[in-house]
Specification:
The chain is of the alpha+beta class. The protein has one domain: q2cbj1_9rhob like domain (Jelly Rolls, Sandwich). Helix 1 crosses helix 5 and helix 5 packs across helix 11.
Length: 292
């Protein structure tokens, strides 16, 4: 099956609508080669020291390199990119806060076999979320070209709300995209890394987002030490989790706002009125991103 692609100027609502319909969306040529060159230079030493996986999910010829907010300044640009963040907020517009869930470079080396198809939301202790409730929105940025031969991601379009036994009989597609393009996929869609039959590695920048009230897959507070976190912009810090995930979730000590605590300021957590205004502001932000 050939997968559909969207142009780099596609608005957030268009990308999110494709994502809701099919469980994935591919947006071509979102960032330029210079951006990816910078990122590759920043991350290469960490990739080289990363160990390969040991099972069918992690891959025995696949390396996963995390803590990217602290290690790779260019990743911060991708995390906050208007195309990514606008789509995430439009897709997860049923919650008052979204948060960064995971940052990692996935390097599929030559000789790797196809990953077992799976749904990412299984990480939440296999909780049976309703079919129409999405708990996460994922991105995979192409640090190298994605091809059929080098392990482009397999996706089962339309499988998000379908039971496993039926979904496993549905037709698969394989992601082919140029460096600097991005794949969006939800937490319910069946997918998995491809087999690498080429002579070189396939590298993707896996940056995922989740609703604000769940635990993050990657512990952002330890992955990015406070001395580095204090140098980052407030908007990025809030996305990393230095905010309340919903009303009364995530405050510090004597009901102190988490971002204020990091900055050494005194500021109380939000009130119920603040929470209601934040819900409204979240909806306005998602609407505004359609114009980017």
């Amino acid at each position: 099956m050939e997968l559909g692609h969207l142009p780099p100027d596609a608005d957030a609502d268009t990308v999110a609508a494709h994502l809701r319909r099919w469980g994935y969306a591919i947006v071509d040529d979102v960032v330029d080669g210079e951006t990816m060159d910078r990122l590759a230079a920043e991350v290469t030493p960490y990739v080289e020291s990363s160990a390969s996986g040991t099972d069918e999910y992690d891959g025995r010829f696949t390396r996963r390199t995390g803590a990217l907010i602290a290690r790779c300044p260019t990743v911060r640009e991708l995390v906050m990119h208007p195309v990514a963040l606008g789509t995430v907020r439009a897709f997860l517009d049923h919650v008052s806060a979204v948060q960064l869930h995971l940052t990692q470079i996935i390097t599929i080396d030559p000789g790797e076999t196809q990953q077992k198809l799976h749904r990412d939301q299984m990480a939440f202790d296999l909780f049976p979320f309703p079919p129409d409730y999405h708990v996460q929105c994922n991105t995979m940025w192409a640090l190298t070209d994605f091809t059929i031969d080098n392990g482009g991601t397999h996706v089962v379009p339309g499988s998000s709300a379908v039971a496993d036994d039926e979904a496993e009989r549905m037709e698969q597609g394989q992601v082919e995209m140029r460096r600097g393009s991005v794949l969006f996929y939800d937490g319910k869609v069946l997918h998995g890394g491809g087999a690498n039959r080429s002579a070189g590695p396939r590298q993707g920048v896996n940056l995922t987002y989740a609703v604000g009230w769940v635990r993050q897959e990657e512990n952002q507070y330890l992955a990015c030490p406070p001395e580095i976190a204090r140098t980052l912009d407030d908007d990025l810090l809030k996305l990393m989790g230095y905010q309340e995930g919903a009303f009364a979730l995530g405050y510090v000590g004597d009901q102190q706002d988490p971002l204020a605590a990091l900055r050494g300021r005194q500021h109380r957590k939000q009130s119920i009125g603040d929470f209601a205004r934040r819900r409204d502001a979240h909806a306005d932000f998602a609407a505004d991103m359609n114009d980017v």
